[in-house]
Amino acid sequence: MSTVAQNLINALSLGSLYALIALGVALLFSIMGLINFAHGELIMIGGYALLWFAGLPFPVTAVLVVAVVIGCALAMERVAFRSVRGATGETLLMTSFALSLFVQGGALLFEGADPKSADVLGSLGASVEVAGVSVGKLDIAIIGVTAALLLGLAWFLRATSLGVQMRAAAEDFRMARALGVRANLVVAAAFGMSGAFAAIAAIFLVASTGALTPAMGLKPVLVGFVAIVLGGLGRLWAAALGAYVLALLSVMLQAYLPDGVAPYRDALVYFGIVVILMFRPHGIAGRPGAVRV
């Protein structure tokens, strides 16, 4: 029983990290129909920013990292995406790919290709015993911060004027503009919030792995994309649900697969996702009239 509980805690922690990434991607898709693959580069910038501010107290470092990544996200929106906002999905996708490669190239130029290491939140490396289950302090932090952010996001979208405008834009962007919603403000806010999620995900990702490379954002953004497809495109809470289901599949297969099959875990995870989408082509919680995979 303790083994099952341990695996569930691991899945909850991994799912919380996936949810941070998925929500950053889903925020932009819900409003602009944009799958921003350059979101991975925001995570990468956040990782390197941890090195730039490493000598400062961690709370100060965290605030500066979030500020830097939000600034980069807003710059992406203003320079790269605002001029193509009304373009086709293919154009938006190619723009995000081009921007991703450009930022990666800049990281290679200024930071080099060699992996770097960072010691972040080392004080959370220990574990605590809870009802016979060993729970890492870092896992507790990831779960707690993600839960707080999810609740905060839900409150913001329902209780603030800007949040209501963002929800209206997510339902029908053109109609929302016709009714007086300030498009530039709403899109900029979505990019800024996406950047904040990317920064926090970067902090926890680096704290978990300790490794930094210019390509470190590629796998996370792919995981985020898979999570929102699995949960259902166009719904933020569905993206979080997809993230937790994806993490649960990964952890449980890793724990219970025979040793000879364990190396094929990722292939089996994605096979399971394909099976789910065969029966739920709009995602687990997707709407029948929404985007179909």
Describe the structure.
This protein is mainly alpha-helical and 293 residues long. Helices cover 71% and strands 4% of the residues. It has eleven helices and four strands. It has a two-stranded antiparallel sheet. Strand 2 and strand 3 form a beta hairpin. Helix 3 packs across helix 8. The protein is globular, with a radius of gyration of 19 Å. The mean pLDDT is 87.
How does the SSE layout of this entry go?
Blueprint: H1 2-32, H2 39-52, H3 58-81, H4 89-111, E1 116-117, E2 127-130, E3 133-136, H5 137-159, H6 161-171, H7 173-178, H8 183-209, E4 211-212, H9 218-231, H10 236-256, H11 265-279
Antiparallel strand pairs: 1-4, 2-3
Q: DSSP helix count?
A: 11
In what range is the share of β-strand residues?
under 5%
Average pLDDT over all residues: 87
Structural class comes to mainly alpha
Main-sheet strand order equals 1-4
The count of β-strands is: 4
Give structural attributes.
single chain; mainly alpha; two-stranded antiparallel sheet; 293 residues; 4 strands
